[in-house]
Amino acid sequence: MEPLLGVKIGCLFALLVITLVCGFIPICFKWFQIETVRGHRHRALSLLGCISAGVFMGAGFMHMTADALKEIETKVHKVLMGDRTESEGNSSGAANSAYMDYPYGELIISLGFFFVFLLESLALQCCPGANGGSKVQEEEVGGAHVLGLHSHGPLPSPSQSPFRALILLLSLSFHSVFEGMAVGLQTTAVAAMQLCVAVLAHMLIVFGLGLRLVRTGTALRWAVFCIVTFALMSPLGLIIGLVVAGEETDEGNLARAVLEGVAAGTFLYVTFLEILPRELAGPEAPLVKWCYVVGGFTLMAIIALWA
């Protein structure tokens, strides 16, 4: 076996095992279970949820959106430069400059956001009772009343939020596939190992995903399915990278960049319309919650220095 191939196979198993462990910690330990939480443990779990919300926010801005913008700009400019060379003299320089300077990345990410917005709006239109209720809902949590606000009505109950859980899983999975592909496409063992370590640095996101599934009351079977599915995405991307190494085309790279941009847009939608509103809904200790959200974001911002 070639050393490079051996390193990539080792990276594949490392990505799979560590992702599963980090994702199953909040699912398998009773300390994280909502129904067993009271008093100080309830507050600790709430603040831990705020950290995970900050981690998701940081992942959305500092990793997924940043990566998508960079990839889209590079690939679109490469395609446009090729077209410009072929059609030089057939159009004005001002028109070419306008096409080159257009914010394609921001547009594609926004389209991903509005695509999920459209899907959810269609679901609510076709099934009016799926998220029914008043705009403001009082819930009894640990003997205290908290005020729950949500853009489309009350905070979704476990039975009402599978759509957003699915969107969150899909957006994260898209990103993980592309990260795995990047590892599989490396041409040296050292580069593959360095990139694998950078990907593993994102395991806070997997823990946050597991915690998110627990805090929304997701059924155990569905939660396990989500974590296992997500854990398989990076290894799947690595295998795809191994298969297509040396066979990349400009069109394929552009399609990959566009998909990553759409995934970033969907991720931002779920982060700002589902995760943050749920964690910040309660009136208790708002400043402390703000500090924990910023702390989670800061962790991802620091990781972005190396990953």
Structure description:
By secondary structure, the protein is mainly alpha-helical. The chain has helices at residues 3-28, 39-86, 93-101, 104-126, 162-184, 189-200, 203-215, 220-244, 250-280, 286-303, and strands spanning 136-141, 144-149. The chain has a two-stranded antiparallel ribbon. β1 (136-141) and β2 form a beta hairpin. α1 (3-28) packs parallel to α7 (203-215). The longest helix is centred in the first third of the chain and has 48 residues, at 39-86. The radius of gyration is 21 Å and the shape is globular. Mean pLDDT is 75; it is low at 132-160.
How is this fold's topology laid out?
Elements: H1 3-28, H2 39-86, H3 93-101, H4 104-126, E1 136-141, E2 144-149, H5 162-184, H6 189-200, H7 203-215, H8 220-244, H9 250-280, H10 286-303
